[in-house]
Amino acid sequence: TTITMSSSNSHTAPSKEEENYITKLRNIGLHPKETPHHTTLPRASILIPIFARNNNIPYILLTQRPQTLSSHPGDVCFPGGRQDPMDNQNDITTA
Question: What is the pLDDT of residues 25-67, one digit of tens each?
Fold first, then answer.
C-alpha cells in the first residue's frame, strides 16, 4: 500500500486516507513481550525513523551495514538489530 502524506501545515487534520492508514498501523496485532511469537529466535528491534524535511516532505532514515560483517554485508536496513545483554531486555534501547 502506498500513501502520500499531506505536506500541508502540521496543524491540518489528517485526511481520511491518512486516518485509515494510521488505524491499520495501530491494528497490526503486536504480541506482548511476555508471549513472543518466535521463542527460538533472539530478540531484536528496529527503529523506523520518519522525519520531515524540505517543505514537510516525509523521509525514512535507513542505514547501510558495513562490508566487513559476515552476514548481509552492505545491505541497506533500518537502524537496530539483535538485543545485547547491556540492553536490559528493553526493545527501545535495542533499536
Answer: 777 765 555 655 667 788 888 888 888 887 888 889 999 999 9
Question: Which residues are CB-neighbours of 58 under 8 A, at least 6 positions away?
Answer: 5, 50, 51, 52
Q: Is the dihedral of CA 2, 4, 79, 71 positive or negative?
A: positive
Measured CA to CA in angstroms, residue 19 lies from 3, 14, 60 at distances of: 11, 6, 19
Q: Report strand pairing: 50-53 vs 57-60.
A: antiparallel
What whole-number distance in Å separates Cα of residue 69 and Cα of residue 66? 6
pLDDT value for 68:
96
| 3-state class (DSSP) for residue 18 | helix
